[in-house]
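Reading a protein record of the kind used here takes little practice once its layout is understood. An example of such a record is reproduced below.
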Amino acid sequence: MRKNEKQLTEAFDRHADELFRHASLRLSNRDRARDLTQDAFMKTWEYLERGGEIRELRAFLFRTLKNLIIDEYRRSKSESLEALVDTDEGETIDALIPPDETNTVESAIARLDGERALALVSELPDPYREAILLRYVDGFSPKEIANVTELTENIVSVRIHRGLKKLRVLLEQTS
């Protein structure tokens, strides 16, 4: 098996499910999420075959998927934000947030059902929403988010902090 093929096969085994979950949460369409996840792997394969080098394959795959999702949003601007963050199967946010979170805001999110929590997160400004979703839904560290978004780790940490602060206000308003 060639190096690129082996590398991508291993990446698919390790990351396909989390990439699919990431796309599903953003698109609310499991078929499109599956297609875009597959497209992310295909684009990554093409990049490797052209001689491109990838330092962090997981971050590269997420960045590629993020760009595909942005393209999808542009094609279907008529959909509302609420429809985009709605889950198809009514999953609860408990299943999506890493279990080791102890902050009270994260605990409050974990107690809410997925639809309500995602609706509140959808009210955050785009930079905060993206940082919160990557951190608490996808389980990325601030360093990994910095790699995906091509921002500094400090900017990512500030966005997470400010996003949580705004989310706390929204939670208090809806309680």
Remarks:
- The two ends are 56 Å apart (CA to CA).
- Residues 3-27 form the longest helix (25 residues).
